[in-house]
Every structure is written in C-alpha cells, then in structure tokens.
Amino acid sequence: AIDGDRLWQALMALATIGATAKGGNNRQALTELDRQGRELLTRWCEAEGLAVRFDAIGNLFARRAGRDDTAEPVVIGSHIDTQPTGGKYDGCFGVLSALEVIRTLNAHDIATQRPIELVSWTNEEGCRFAPCMMGSGVFAGQLTLEDALARRDAEGITAGEALEAIGYAGDDANRPGRFAAYLEAHIEQGPILEEAGDRIGVVTGALGLKWFDVTLTGMAAHSGSTPMDLRHNALLGATRVIEGVDRIALAQQPDGRGTVGAVQVAPNSRNVIPERVTLSIDLRHSDEAALKTMAEAFQHLLEEVEADSELTVEVTPTADYPPQYFDTDCIAAVREAAQAGGYAHRDIVSGAGHDAVFISDIAPAAMIFIPCEKGISHNEAEYASPEDVTAGANVLLHATLTLAGV
Amino acid sequence: AIDGDRLWQALMALATIGATAKGGNNRQALTELDRQGRELLTRWCEAEGLAVRFDAIGNLFARRAGRDDTAEPVVIGSHIDTQPTGGKYDGCFGVLSALEVIRTLNAHDIATQRPIELVSWTNEEGCRFAPCMMGSGVFAGQLTLEDALARRDAEGITAGEALEAIGYAGDDANRPGRFAAYLEAHIEQGPILEEAGDRIGVVTGALGLKWFDVTLTGMAAHSGSTPMDLRHNALLGATRVIEGVDRIALAQQPDGRGTVGAVQVAPNSRNVIPERVTLSIDLRHSDEAALKTMAEAFQHLLEEVEADSELTVEVTPTADYPPQYFDTDCIAAVREAAQAGGYAHRDIVSGAGHDAVFISDIAPAAMIFIPCEKGISHNEAEYASPEDVTAGANVLLHATLTLAGV
Ligand SMILES: NC(=O)NCCC(=O)O
Ligand SMILES: NC(=O)NCCC(=O)O
C-alpha cells in the first residue's frame, strides 16, 4: 500500500507554488510558476533515482528501469498546470500519485518486469494556450509540434516563446517509445461518484468534444449619441450565441454539454457600443452522432445570427475529438485493483477531456477517478479527501503492478 | 467671420501632442501630454492678451475684458483631454473655436459689452479618473473638490497627485463669478446631423443618464463534467440582463438608449462555467419620467433574473443626472447665429454628456453641434470636415456676440 501521508504532503507542497488567497492554485502552463512546479517535480523524481527528460513540447518523462528494460514501459501520470482559479488536486493528484507509486516501489525495493515512466504532460488545461491537452496531443499526433508552438496567449506570446523562456524545451529523442499501457489517476471533476457514495470510478471512456472560437464584429459608437436603430452591437449577437449554445446542449440530454466560458468585449468601455465580442464555445457528448448534430445546430445558429443582424461572424475550430472508449485490459486492471482494495467503485464516463483521451489513440489506456467535493473543480474551492486520494493512489499502484508485472 | 484656416491649423497643432499611429489622439487627463496641451493653449491665450488662471481642480479660464468689465462674463469653451483611442476633434474643437472667436475679435478690434472667458475644463472624458466631466462637475457642485482629487486611476495615483505633478493645481479665487451665459461647441458624436444633411445642431438639451454596475454570481464548475441541470451559470443570467437593457430602451423610442458596454467574466476560461459576470449599464432618455420608467424596468429585470435563477445579483449606481433643458435665450442665440450664417441646421438633443450639462445647473447654457463623419467618436478615426469646423466656430462667434453685446 502507498503512503497516504507522504502523498498528501507532496500535494500540499506543490500547491504552495501559485497558491491563491482563496486556497486554490493559479499555475498556468508555461508561466514562471509552471517552471517552479516543474523544478520541484524534477527534484523529487531525481531523488528517487529516475532519469528525467523533456521532449520538444516540454512533456516530462521520468523513468524507473524494469527487470526487462527493453520492454515497453507502463506510463503513469497526468499534468501539473492549473486553471487561473484552479484547485490543488486536478492533474497534480495524478502526477503525484504516480510519484507515490514509484516511491512505494523504491521503499519496498520492488522491481517490475517492465520499466515504469512517470509523465507530466505540458499544458493540459489549455486556458493560456488552446488547445487543451497540448502536450499529450502533440505526443499522440493530434496536432503538430509546429502548430502547438505557434499558438498564442491573450498577450500574443507563442507557446514556443513561453516554453523557451521557462527553459523546458527538450528534445523528442528523449521520448519513450511505444507504451505497454497508460494509466492516469484524476479527480472526477463532477458530482457522480460523491452522489453515488463510491470511492473509485473505473473510467471506461470520455465524452467527445468540439471547441470553437467565435468573433462577432459590429461597429463601436457612442452609447449616448447613437440611436438604438442605427447600432451594430456585437454584444447583442453574442448573447444569442451564448443562449443558443445552452439550448443546443439541452436538446441532447442527459449527455450533451454546451458552455461559453470565455468572453472578450472590445473596446469594453461603459459608454461605447461593443464593436467586437469573442466567445469560446465548448460542446460535448458521449455519442458521436449526437455531437455532430450539436455542431450542425451550432453552425446553423451562427448563420442565423449573421443573417439577421448587421454583424459579421467568424468561427474557428480550436479542438475536436470523438467520444473515446478506453482499453478493456487496462479498464479490467483498474476494476480489479479497486475490488482488491475493497473500495466501493463504479464504471464512469469522463465528462472532461484528459491526456488519456489522446494517449488512448496510440496505446492501451484507462483512468482512475476519485470523488471531489460537490463535483467542484476548476475552482479554488476544489477538494478531495485524504482517504479518497489514498484510495486512488492505491488503485494506481495495483493496476500498475498488474500491467508492468512483478 | 472667423478664419477657418487658422482654426484648422490650431486643431492640427494641438493634435500633434499625444498623436497616435492611427491618426487619433491619446492625451488623457492630467498626464504629461495633458500638461503639454495646457502649456500650448496657455501660450496661445496669452498671445491674445488674455489673463490665464487655473482653479483648484485645474480648470483653465482665460479672460478677455469687456467694455463693462464688472458685468457677468459670457463663458465659451470645452475640454482638451481625450480618450485613450480618441480623436482630434471631440472637445478640442470647442476650446479652439472659443480661441478662434477671441482671435477674430482681436483681429477686427471688436469690443464686447461683457467680458468673455475662454474655459478648458479638466478631465471631461473620465477615462483615467472617473467620473467624466470632473472639472465642470466640481465647478457646478456636482461633486466636491476633495472627492474629485481623491479619485484614483488604475495605477492607484490620485487625481490630486496627478494634478500637482503636472503643475496645474490652481486656486478657486481664480474662478470667474456668475456666468451671464455658457456656450460650448462640440462635434455631435452621433449620426443624426450627417444623415439629415445639416451642418449645425442647435442643442436644446441633453439626455438624462443613469449608470449602474451589475454583478451576477453563480458557481464555477467544469464545463465537461458538470451536467446541464446542476449548473449555476452566471453568463446565462448576464445575457438576460444584456437583452433586457436593449428591450427596455426599445420600449422608450425614439429617445431611449440602453447599452451594456463593458463585460467582465470570471474566471473567463473556456472550460469553466462562468462564476461571476460584471456588466456596466448605461440608460439614457430625454424625458425624466421615461428615464425613471426605464430604471424601474431595469430593477424589475434584475429581480426577475435573481428570482428564477440560482444566481445572486448585485447592483451599484455609478452616475445619475436628469435630462437637461438648455436655456431658451442661449438656444435662440445659437439658432439665430446658424440662420444668419445660412447654415442648414436643426434642433437636436445631445445623447452624450458634456460639461454644458453640469454648467447649465448654475448658468444659462447651450451648445452648438457640428457633424462628425459617420457619427464616429471616441475612436481614432473620428473626423469633422474643415467646412463644418468653420461653420461651428462662426455660429459660436455670432451667438457669443449676441449674448455679450457689441
Ligand atoms: N480535465 C480537464 O480539465 N481537462 C481539460 C480539458 C477539458 O476541458 O475537458
Ligand atoms: N461627450 C462625451 O463623450 N462625454 C462622456 C460622457 C458620456 O458618456 O456621455
């Protein structure tokens, strides 16, 4: 069994980097705080005798040799970047559970047949640089390295510049080859396990996702001297898009999700009619056909708004992946580990995207969920109990041992 | 008649101070560039033999003696501060037209019965330090000097500190006493004159205004893993407010105006359900009862949104003044001057607030509008033609002569 106290202390130590006043974390990808987080994680991995390397998009790999060191590794981990008002658990729980698995194996001098690679993927959150799951996406061939490095944040800085600035641009020669399996432990980020009273979610797949950026452009003018009928108010078009996205998701229940999370208004001055509004659109569903229907309804909505306003509407897709079904052997290893630990568990589909979603395109993969209080995540109030954190890491340990062989 | 070329050259000369790449001006109140603008204007006034003084909030007064120098003065002017992406005309047209009136009287050696005071009010725009129309507001008793000087910019600098730093804090003993009349020439900042093909707007009053800040608070949660029916999405409440403000204004046509100009979403991340949205609300009407009806409908809207969502809604008033009706004698002087000049003109109500709005509380006042291209203002592309600028200054000259007596 893993050492729950040691794992909890590691979580709290990492959470001091980018700690927010409300008890959360703001350690966005490729910032100075991300650099500090990477440095601490690297130090911890090296203390366990692991060989730490970075690939060209900055993914961290830390290798523990196997008895058969030429065998394909079992890869375990997640990400340590956070949302601007993120919590302390999210991806950190997965990375530090992986570290705790290795610390436990080292402490008990347990050799595995296959090597084990701890991984910490770059920019999973995608809030500073879209798309999310950038590091695992590049690794799995979802997007090219060049494309990823050219993405810009709101200040116009590219991901490549930011990665260089924090000194973590590595070399793809450092990548491990094919994975025997990939396991990722994560908080659920939703309310299902807590409501059901289960401690472990055996994740069988993930909702498909389509992201878009929409820009509506009208004309800036003085809010006092411009009569209502002469306005080209970009914000009024934007409200129709925001409400339409909600309606489109409500038409595909229970699995449809539709969200506008980010809004930028220009010039954003109280006595100027909005000239330009940019919206981020997030559509999800467990069923590929239903997701397609949602995307079509969304396109139709934009055409409608453009047709009966004097606004121009531009749309750019920023992320797109189909519903994912994880590997049956990996799922079985997780389920058996939960059973063996005596943990109440259930099969669950992930509403959130995870690095495992992309990795499952190129390797057998599965995930382990633990509850998070009230389902709150991407929020400074995010909380997972020490008991659940310990349970999740124990399931990761035993599933890893099953897949890596002792 | 005034000298249109000389006036145009003065406008272009002042516009070199804080000129922007896109042909506009960024000469915000109480900055080093404002200091340079004040210096140039002072030099020009002194060259005309005017006595230049500053009051405690930094308003500039430049006096041309009257035949009866104990008579109440006719005061003419506007402001020279600009928006961050402002134009070259806005308030500068009014101040430099006043200077051109005086230059013309001097050139033709015309003595007026009453003294004439040129005024340039401090911080009309209110973009660096709220509220707008600060200098005329203090002068007219809308806010106290202490309150105004304590207002802070985004960097935390007070208006008092900034005024000291540029060396233009004067003494209220320098203020002229009661005004016989106040006239302000200004670009319309709206599309009405251009659409009508009129060169002069005889401004009979200004819309009343009520400004509010509204904050809607829900709960941040993950956009992928949070089912639609468990959300508290602050942005969906905000869209109802935005649309409601538009509807409330449309119900009070033709004079009702309702605008949400500024929107802040938190945490503003593409995969987080919006927790908090702040909106700026701008309601205007020419009729006090109609403006009150709009404000009541707005309050009712907020209550409705709060009642049938699980959001909390907070509202703070940030500005409030009633519709203004300018002085009939001043209006008549402007109308007759337009007629005498042979300019196509029409009565118009100002949609924007102006220094004249506050001054009209304490003195007979009116305004002269000229068209601005496509109604565009508070924008680097702002443009008024030399012909219209000349026409406006001629109307100011003749209305001033009527009110000051020859
Ligand atoms: N787990 C997680 O928050 N991933 C970010 C991508 C998503 O929005 O699902
Ligand atoms: N003229 C002008 O832009 N004044 C600012 C106050 C307003 O929004 O009307």
Written description of the protein model:
The structure is a homodimer of 406-residue chains. In chain A, the strands form 2 sheets. In chain A, strands 1, 2, 3, 4, 5, 6, 11, 12 and 13 form a 9-stranded mixed beta sheet that branches. In chain A, strands 8-9-7-10 form a 4-stranded antiparallel beta sheet, covered by helices on one side. The first copy, chain A, is built from 12 helices and 13 strands. Chain A is globular, with a radius of gyration of 22 Å. The mean pLDDT of chain A is 96. Chain A has 406 residues and is α/β, with parallel strands linked by helices. The interface between A and B is large, with 66 and 66 residues.
**Estimated radius of gyration of chain A:** 22 Å
Number of helices of chain A: 12
Number of strands of chain A: 13
Sequence of secondary-structure elements of chain A: HHEEEHEHHHEHEEHEEHEEHEHEH
Helix content of chain A: 25-40%
What is the CA–CA distance across the termini of chain A?
A: 15 Å
pLDDT averaged over residues of chain A: 96
What fraction of the residues of chain A are assigned to beta strands by DSSP?
A: 15-25%
Estimated structural class of chain A: alpha/beta
Oligomer: homodimer
Unreliable spans of chain A are none
